[in-house]
Amino acid sequence: MDKPTIEAQTGPAPEDIVIVDLIEGDGPEAQPNGLVEVHYVGVDFESGAEFDSSWDRGQTIEFPLSGLIAGWQEGIPGMKVGGRRQLTIPPEAAYGPAGGGHPLSGRTLVFVIDLISVG
Predict the structure, then answer these.
(1) Which structural domains are found in the chain, ordered by start?
(2) Which of 30, 34, 41, 103 could form a disulfide with 53 if both were Cys (CB 3.0 to 4.6 A apart)?
(3) What's the half-sphere exposure (Cβ side, CA atoms, 13 Å) at 83?
(4) Is 66 exposed, middle or buried (0-12, 13-18, 19+ CB in 10 A)?
(5) Are 89 and 64 in contact (CB under 8 A)?
(6) EC no. (predicted)?
(7) What is the CA radius of gyration of the chain?
(8) DSSP states of the chain
(9) Distance CA 84, CA 79 (A)
(10) Separation between Cα atoms, residue 1 and residue 113, nearest integer Å
């Protein structure tokens, strides 16, 4: 697969996490407290500006879901290896309200995640 392009978002930012499967995987399922290996791109909902991409670093990243933002903990389980999923995550499930000390605090984030493997 190639690096995904995230289309400009329209309308108001959602108040809850929005999960959309872009490609349905057919491999093992990600588990709530499992280890996942992913490729991902993240953009700001309002501006569409990319803030992070494993693709640009040229390598996937592996981590336990339990250590990630709530939006990933909720949005990745049930996804199958080989799949591509878009998550739109409000601030409460990302880096908290504006002024929270993180550069992305107060922002609604959009990620496209490719699930490479599960552990």
Answers:
(1) 18-118 (3.10.50.40)
(2) 41
(3) 23
(4) exposed
(5) no
(6) 5.2.1.8
(7) 13
(8) -PPP-PPPP-SSPPSS-EEEEEE---SPBPPTT-EEEEEEEEEETTT--EEEEHHHHTS-EEEEGGGS-HHHHHHSTT-BTT-EEEEEE-GGGTT-STTSSSTTTT--EEEEEEEEEE-
(9) 8
(10) 11
Please give the pLDDT value at position 37.
Answer: 98
Q: Is 110 exposed, middle or buried (0-12, 13-18, 19+ CB in 10 A)?
A: buried
In this structure, the number of other CB atoms found within 10 A of the CB of residue 45 comes to 20
- Gap between the Cα atoms of 63 and 55, Å rounded: 16
Write out pLDDT tens, residues 58-100. Answer: 999 999 999 999 999 999 999 999 999 999 999 999 999 999 9
